[in-house]
Amino acid sequence: MRRMNRGTNQIYFFLLFAVGALFPLLAEWTLGLFASTGECDTRLDLE
What we know:
The chain is mostly helical. About 85% of the residues lie in helices and about 0% in strands.
């Protein structure tokens, strides 16, 4: 049971790390998708 718990913690840490690494990419892709539909034109003009 103790060994299983430690393995679960490792998996949870890995998932947390993966989400943290992929979140900026996902956010950028989502903003790019909105920008391509023309909903974020003002935001693109600021750049």
